[in-house]
Write a structure and sequence with these properties.
Largest sheet: 4 strands, mixed
Number of domains: 2
Number of helices: 8
Order of helices and strands: EHEHEEHHHHHH
Radius of gyration: 17 Å
Helix content: 40-55%
Bound molecules: glutathione
Strand order of the largest sheet: 2-1-3-4
């Protein structure tokens, strides 16, 4: 399998963590393909959206986006499944993944907007994204007491989202007032799959 990714993409990190948890890391060839540089032409050939991650399976079919790739990898490998198959656990887990992904979408939209030039940048748009991030964080805090030590794609996505806040918005600590989430995050960050997939530019 070939994974088109960047070392700083939190969505790609979800895939890397799932691969690690399922014992599949050695089966995946990593191909750095930034959406923002000349490498993007590699990426757009496999993913029309021009986004990472994308995964080309051994039979040649390419999958995107991260929820689809993660569920595919969960169908391979070994160890406890990361996508529960019974309800209501499955719906709760998928909701958690959607919440973490939503936080990431808003955080990334805010950061991209902040990098636009004067006159193009919208403070109102950035404030809207920041408010969305804060609501997602509050929902995660309300959920934190029920998070397990056993990973599912829900916990993995929360970890990737919170770590990306530390990576890109370190000056805006999300922890004050969110003690349950901070404590869960600190413990979950010690997993091997988390320690071996830290983001970097
Ligand atoms: N929903 C997608 C989001 C992927 C995404 O936004 N990736 C970013 C990098 S973190 C990207 O490639 N952005 C390029 C662009 O927006 O053009 C997923 O879960 O994979």
């Amino acid at each position: 399998m070939k994974l088109y990714y960047t070392t700083n993409s939190p969505f790609a990190r979800k895939v890397l963590m799932v691969a690690a948890e399922r014992g599949l890391t050695g089966n995946i060839e990593l191909i750095v393909s930034s959406p923002w540089t000349a490498e993007a032409n590699i990426l757009t050939r496999v993913n029309p959206a021009g986004k990472v991650p994308a995964l080309t399976m051994d039979d040649g079919l390419t999958l995107f986006d991260s929820p689809v790739i993660c569920e595919y990898l969960d169908s391979l490998g070994h160890g406890p499944k990361l996508f529960p198959t019974t309800n209501p656990e499955r719906w709760l887990t998928l909701k958690r993944q959607a919440l973490g992904d939503a936080l990431l979408d808003a955080m990334i939209a805010r950061r991209l907007e902040s990098r636009r030039s004067n006159g193009e940048r919208s403070e109102a748009w950035m404030d809207r994204q920041k408010a969305s991030v804060n609501r997602c964080l509050d929902a995660m805090e309300a959920d934190a007491r029920d998070l397990g030590e056993t990973p599912t794609i829900g916990e993995i996505t929360y970890l990737c989202a919170l770590a990306h806040l530390d990576f890109r918005f370190a000056e805006e600590d999300w922890r004050p007032g969110r003690t349950e989430l901070a404590s869960w995050y600190s413990a979950f960050s010690k997993r091997h799959s988390a320690k071996t997939t830290l983001p970097h530019d």
